[in-house]
Fold:
Amino acid sequence: MQYNPVAGTTFRPDTRSRLIAATRVRTMHQALVPFPVAYFVAAFATDLAYWRTVEVMWERFSVWLIAGGLVMAAVIDLVFAKQKPAWFRALGYTLAMLLSLLNVFVHSRDGYTAVVPPGLTLSAIVVAILLLSTVPTSWTLTTRRRGARS
Structure:
């Protein structure tokens, strides 16, 4: 077996790869933020359907959609904890998540009165907060770091 030494190798970090990685993280973040919003909008729609039909299936769908939206929001917060938040958007998002947590407890009660006045109102407030804090800002809750290319 013949050994060929490699001459001239250096172990310098490639700065371009970090910029590409940072750009991909931002793109992935923008791709994930709409999921909780979609879950909560769908929960609002199922609350409206329950209000009109009084079919228990719609109330159960609402509970599952709100819980799924909270799980997706937690995943986003855990994955992107190292990014610099845009405080106004992040606070609006956090307020919506706290109201959604309250909403899932309200929806877990039994009967028509669990959904129609309080649950429907909370769902509408959450949807309004999320649409006002995320849609106008291209679905992102973070700001660009200095020197990063997009």
